[in-house]
Amino acid sequence: MNLTPFEVAVVAVLDSTEPGDVLSYGEVAAEAGFPGAARAVGGVLRRLDGLPWWRVVAANGRLIPHDPDEHARRLRSEGVEIRNNRVVGQGR
Question: Which positions of the chain have pLDDT values less than 70?
Fold first, then answer.
């Protein structure tokens, strides 16, 4: 599969995360060198398998709306505190 430079950069950021790390879509975009491309990060997460998607949340800490229970389960398994479908104390 040929990846775009943006996709390669996003994958590199996500590959650098460790259990317990939580980043917003905007933080991933900025660290990838594409500030302002937060929505495009979501597209990468939808298209590419095998990425630690659960470590990415909305800027306000909100979990993904289509499966917040699975999102919370994965984050909690890495020691991240979740309350009311939001990450408490977000950040790397």
Answer: 90-92
Beta 23-24 vs 82-83: how paired, if at all? Answer: unpaired
Query: CB-hemisphere CA count at 13 Å for 70?
Result: 7
- Concatenated DSSP letters of 15-69: HT--TT--EEHHHHHHHTT-TT-HHHHHHHHHHSTTS-GGGEE-TT-BPPTT-HH
Q: What is the pLDDT of residue 60?
A: 94
What local confidence, expressed as pLDDT, does residue 4 receive? 97
**What CATH number does the domain located at 5-87 have?**
1.10.10.10
Residues in Cβ contact with 77 at an 8 Å cutoff, skipping those fewer than 6 apart: none
CA nearest neighbour of 26 among 57, 52, 64? 57
Domain range summary for the chain, segments of one domain joined by + = 5-87
